[in-house]
From TrEMBL:
This is O-antigen ligase-related domain-containing protein. GO terms for cellular component: membrane. InterPro entries: O-antigen_ligase-rel_domated (IPR007016), WaaL-like (IPR051533). Its main location: membrane. It comes from Marinobacter adhaerens.
Amino acid sequence: MLKILLASVLWCGLLLPFHLFPLEDLPNDVVSMLLASILFFFIVLKYRSQMVALPVSALLLLVFIISVIGSSFVQESSFLFSDYAYLIFLFAGVLVAVAAGTLKEHGNDVVPLIAKSLYCIALITATYGLLRHYGVLKLLLPWVTGETTRLLGPLNQANLTALVLGLGIISSVFLLISSRLRYPNTLLSVSYMSVAASLTGSRAFVIFVLLIIAIPMLKLCVSPRVMSASRRVVQNRWKQVVAIVGLVLVITFVFPSVSRPISDSLIQAGFIERGEEEAVSDRFRLTDDYRSEEWRKLQAYPQIAENPLFGFGPGRYGVFSIEADKAIEDPVRMGTLWSHGHNLFVNVFVELGIFGLSVMLAMVAYLFALFWRSEFLPRDYFVFSALGALFVNNMLEFSFWFFGFFALAIVLVSQVDRRVKIKFSSSFLPVSVGGALLVTSLVSFAYVGSDYWGAVKGFHKANLTQEERYAFLDAKKNRFVGGYALKAQIIREQVSLFGVEAQIRELERYMSWRPEMVFMMRSAVLKSVIGPQEIACDRVKETVGLYPNSVERLADELVEAKQLGATFDIAFIQGCLAEGMMYWVELSRNLPPEKGG
């Protein structure tokens, strides 16, 4: 049962398809973290009279938690949503580490189970994605809406879908070389996964596949003696492995040409509504690179960071991004908020400062030491190939924001890591600790879940009852999800002139955490109402200069405020709005944009 619970953390984290605004990924994380708490309780219950084991890497994770706490405390604003979320997320990771390490210490090898789970998850993801891509899934799951040019799996994000499929192919190779999957079945399954992956348009998927060959080569370079002694692990299957990699790459680049006529026919028939498919080969030809432009903002970090040692605070990358936009010359904007840096090191450095980055680099160095010392048996081959895929993804995205991937990395490391054995003098102590953590988790997740559902229902339901409206309004007080609930309320509700100054204070507090478009837009309207008009003008220009999609809604709300009795000079503010849009006007003319906002 313990192994099943461990696998269920991954299954729920990577497969639940309930992505409802304003907290699209919360169900996956909440359910998988709750399962982690249940798993930890049953682990300490079973081994209460023996011992539990903590992987050495988890000690570094505890130090990382200290860096998060330190970063949260040094911020001027009080603890806000992401401060709590980061701590719960990381502590849940420690629970997974203890569970996986203890199972390993007592002779339970979970690597085959993890590989089989990822294999099945990838097959389900491919099926889900293909059904959705060709318009069938909306007939089966009505809440799955929005047809995009890139294939989306249950995680509702193309690059994460490609990561799941890449992990599935890596798992297939492990199952093959460990004689758990026959070669014809392996070819069939990886072909199916590759068909789906080719339509995600993910360039990183190609790297995931190449890691299957690259990881053994890297091991040969760093540990030639160990590798030569264990080369028999893959020697008999090496030609088959190379053939699999070649097959996957061919399908990845060829299948979109087969799919495009099919999609065009479905679009013309009105069965699906979307633009032209984005194939991997198309995305390799892209010339714009918003990531590198975003990373260029790091040059402004020394001059804008108030506390370089501890950074801007957990979850506050967006604050840095906008402050750096003002500080650098000729910023390149996407028109959306960068809530993270699309790179693990960049994100940790900005949010947690030099201290957090130092701990992260120590973790990476420790993992490389584990790789160097490993015997490189099939299980090691699988563990480090899968970790390599996760690492590559986190250099370009940030999949560790999703607990399923974070827990997967922790479980994988625990299978090759050394362990610290902990034996309790009384069997009552670990059970009471595990029970207290489980009860706390149940209460916390019930608290979060209630307000999450209130925010979701409040945003999506056409006609709210009085009780539902109170729940919708009350959700913004939640310490974990309140900011997202307020975001949903602003989008749904019209501007109100009741308690304008209090509204502005609340918005400023939230903008110090995450300067989302809706927060800045409503703040611009309310500042226009109470003045002074020069300050209001600056906020309006800044808002539309960063978020061009805010123009129409902002203009409408200014008119609404005027109709409600506000006495500001709307013509002056509309002029500020037009001035703020000049960045985007010049950009559309392919001229070097002047700094806007």
